[in-house]
Amino acid sequence: MVKFSSLADANKHGYTITHEPAQSRFALYDQAENLLGEAHYTLLGETEIDFDHTVISPNLRGIGLSAILAEVAITSDLAKTHKIAASCWFIAKYLNRATQQNAVAAPNHDTAERS
Asked: What is the pLDDT of residues 5-27, one digit of tens each?
């Protein structure tokens, strides 16, 4: 199975990620426009965004698409203008790893669990 390391690589294989504000999510689609995954968020006031749920089709786990979805979400224009909170364990883990590796210029973020 193909492993993906970038959005451009995923796009070459027919995967796209779209911001869908009405559903409060970043959605992963295939060429047939089937929804394959999402990074859901909740806006907390006007200055904070909580990425609270990430899911991807089980048959696509472990090939890099989840990480690409997370990266697109946390580096989006929306995330850049808000303090990032991550009650989703996957986004929290991604933010911590990215910050440690300086791979993503992540804005202020908080990975504490939300109730």
From this structure: 999 999 999 999 999 999 999 99
Six-digit token pair at 46? Answer: 């006007």
Three-state SS for the chain is: CCCCCCHHHHHHCCCEEEEEHHHCEEEEECCCCCEEEEEEEEEECCCEEEEEEEEECHHHCCCCHHHHHHHHHHCCHHHHCCEEEECCHHHHHHHHHHHHHCCCCCCCEECCCCC
Rg (CA), the chain: 13
Question: Which residues lie across from 55 on neighbouring strands?
Answer: 38
Q: Are 94 and 74 in contact (CB under 8 A)?
A: yes
